[in-house]
Each structure stands twice: as structure tokens, then as C-alpha cells.
Amino acid sequence: MNKYFICFLSFIAPFYSIGQINFLSLGKEYFLEIDVNQLKCDDLDAESTKEKIKNFELYHFKNDQYGKLFLKLDSIRDKNDLDQFQYLKLCKDLSCKIFPSDEIRAKLVFWWLIKMSFNTQLLYDDYSIYIFVSSENEFQNIPNFRYEDQIYIDISSWYFKSTSRRNLSLYTPIQHSYLGEILCFSPEKLFDKKIFEKNKEYSFEKGTDLKLKLNFSSDIEYYCEIYPNHNFKNYHFVSNLNRKEILKKFRPILNGRSRDHSISFILRFVQECIISVTDEERFGRDYFQLAEETLYRGEGDCEDKSILFSYLIQEVLGLETIIIEYKGSLTREGHVNVGIISDGTLSTKETFEYKGRKIIICETTGLFDLGEAVDRSDMKIRMHDVNAPFDDCIDY
After folding, report:
1. Where is the domain boundary, 143, 171, 199?
2. What is 213-274 written as a DSSP string?
3. Is the same domain home to 333 and 363?
4. Of 65, 206, 247, 354, which residue is least crowded by CB atoms under 10 Å?
């Protein structure tokens, strides 16, 4: 009888292993030797959210399984050379695997795992908890706040379904979290794998042919798929190879032209050679493209074309620019275009004032001339100063 029982155990062993958890993340399946039952804190039935967090902390101070789990995840991070955002997603996917139907518990596990590496703040209301991580920059469409001269972004609103916030309170941990990493945006480290080449020819001005040999990393698509929309400043990314190609081909064409004529040339290039297409048509959602991606794909919406135009003006002509964001409403769609900060050499008279400096507006969609744009004076405006080290935003 024992012989058959042993055979049965050896048969099921490949399919089930006591103390093992498997989960999918970042396109891979991971297996961890860990006692999942010891990770589950059942003492979270307190009435208030604050008491639930406190009970969770007390439970995990007495549980060494979470320390072991952190070391295993940290090992996966090193072995696979994961960047910060990929590591955060790894922790989130594991948390949801442990508590697939309880978002508060999953968020608490997520917070516990990442606070050992990142500088975090935990906020809460009567309904849920919200995990903020310190960041070098703000992110588009992600809630953030400043605390002790540091920007904190709500990473839980990106990784978990969004929930309404009412009268948020700051939770003080029993033991303050270790002041660890600060999230930063460094696309240069990501785009070094598979590279594609494409030769593109443009004919948009009589007697002028522009040919570009562009390189494109497949990692760009992966980046834009999993990362939240960052500020406009950091979407001005073009690799060194493509930067050299742009300068090599644009500058001889513009040599001898006036500043106004040179700006108009670049504006026409973006207007006519980059096809206008909405994010909804291509991706079914809002999708920011890096300047390099827009140039390579040859298409984009208003913010994509504006980012590319802003980059070209800065890089080729050395002029400062701002990104002008028009806030949408129920009755009017939002929009983005570009303002060039006049350095005194431009003759175009259609300008407006910004921080005491003259700005020339440039519309990258449609065939508008320099200084012309659709009247959107009735819309709320946000100016993004993309010349500063960070995206310095001012609302009007």
C-alpha cells in the first residue's frame, strides 16, 4: 500500500510543491520557494483603515517570511537587471497573486515589499490606502504631492485600479521606512538591445529632398507600453546616433537661411511629413511617444508632433521652447502645441508674453504659418518649460 502511495506522490510532485508560489510578471513566469500561508495576515478586520495598516505592520514584524521574500525578489531584480519600474511591477504582480481578490491586502503587501528599497509614504482614507514613492520628476496624469521638499507620486494609482480619494491622511509607520531609492527616468539605459534601421525620404519643400537614416530600439515600444506618461521634458529623447544624423542632414539645408525661415522649414517638416493620427485610432488609449519614436514611425497626435518639433528647434537651432497644453472639457478636446522663446533675432510679430519674454506660437497639426494657431483663449492652459532641468509647469 505504501508503495502505491509513494508512486502517487512522485506523480503529482511536478504539478504541486508545498511552499512554492508561481506568478506571471513582465512576460515571464517566476517560481518562489516560500510558505504563502504564512504571508497571509487574517487580522485585518478592524473597522478603520488606519487600524488595518497598524495590525498588518505588527503581524509582519513577527514574520520572517517577508524578509525572505524581499531577498528573493531582490535576487530576481539583480539577475534580470530590472530597472526601478520593472521591479515595482514585479512586486505588484506578486502581491496580487497572494491576495487576488482583496485590493487593500494586496496594496499592503506591495507597500511592505517596496518600502525596503524605496522612500515611500503611505496615505489612507476611509475606503482604501494609497502608496506614494519619492521621485525626481512628476508624471503626467498621476497624483503627486510635495512633502519635506520631495516629490511623491501615487504609484498605486498606476499599478492598481483608480479609486476616489476623500480626506487623505498620512500614516506614520511603527518604524520609519529606510530612505532608499528615488524614482528617476533614464531612457538611455533602456534602449540598448535590438536595433532596427530605416531609411526615410521626405519631399515637402520644392527643390529640397531630405533623407534620414534612422535607428530604432524595440525597447522603446516596451517602454511606452509599461511606463506612465512622464513630463514633456523627458519625452524629448533621441539617441546619439539619430541626433548626429539629424544635425548632419538638417544643418546644411538651413545654412544661410534666416531664423524665421529655418523655423518655418522645421515646422513644415513636422506638419507635412509626420502624419496626424490619434492615440485612440492607433492604441485605443492615451500614449505618449518619445521624439525618436515619432520620427521613426512617421506619425503621431498633437503632443507627439509638438514634442518632436520642440526637440528639433532646441537641437538644430539652439532656441528655447515651451510646450503649451490646453486642458480639455466635456465640450472641447484638449490640445498641445509649441511656443518658441524669442531671442531677439526673430522678426515674427505674432507673439505673447510668458515670464516677461516674447513667445511665438507654433501649431504642428494643420498647415499653419509661424505665429498662427486656432483660437483657444477660452481653455485653461498649462505651460511646460522644457528647457529647465525638470518640467517646470505653470497653470493659467
Report:
1. 171
2. EEEEETHHHHHHHHSPPB-GGGG----HHHHHHHHHHHHHHHTT--HHHHHHHHHHIIIIIS
3. yes
4. 206
pLDDT in tens, 309-363: 999 999 999 999 999 999 887 777 889 999 999 887 787 777 788 888 889 999 9
Which structural domain, as residue segments, surrounds residue 206? 187-395
Q: How crowded is residue 263: how many other Cβ atoms within 10 Å of its Cβ?
A: 25
What b/e readout covers 32-55, taking b as 16+ CB neighbours within 10 angstroms? bebeeeebebeebeeeebbebbeb
User: Does residue 94 sit in helix, strand or coil?
Assistant: helix
Percentage of residues of the chain with pLDDT beyond 70: 80
Mean pLDDT of 58-63: 68
CA distances from 321 to 75, 111, 134, 298 (A): 43, 39, 28, 22
Distance (Å, whole) CA 91 – CA 74: 10
Same domain, 154 and 63: yes
375 C-beta neighbours (distance < 10 Å), count: 6
Give the Cα-Cα-Cα angle 101, 102, 107 (nearest 5 degrees). 125
Domain tally for the chain? 2
User: CA 389, CA 312: separation in Å to the nearest integer?
Assistant: 18
For residues 302 and 364, the answer to whether their CB atoms sit within 8 Å is: yes
Residues 36-50: tens digit of each pLDDT:
777 766 656 667 888
Higher pLDDT, 85 or 189: 85
* 1 occurs within a structural domain: no
Whether 140 and 215 share a structural domain: no
CATH of the domain at 328: 3.10.620
Cβ contacts of 226 within 8 Å, gap of 6 or more: 85, 86, 89
Is residue 217 included in any domain, yes or no? yes
Mean pLDDT estimate for the chain: 80
What are 276's strand-pairing partners? 300
Mean pLDDT of 227-232: 68
Domain annotation covers residue 111: yes
Give the Cβ contact number of residue 213 at 10 Å: 13
Three-state secondary structure string covering 323-337? EEEECCCCCCCCEEE
Number of neighbours of residue 348 by Cβ within 10 angstroms:
19
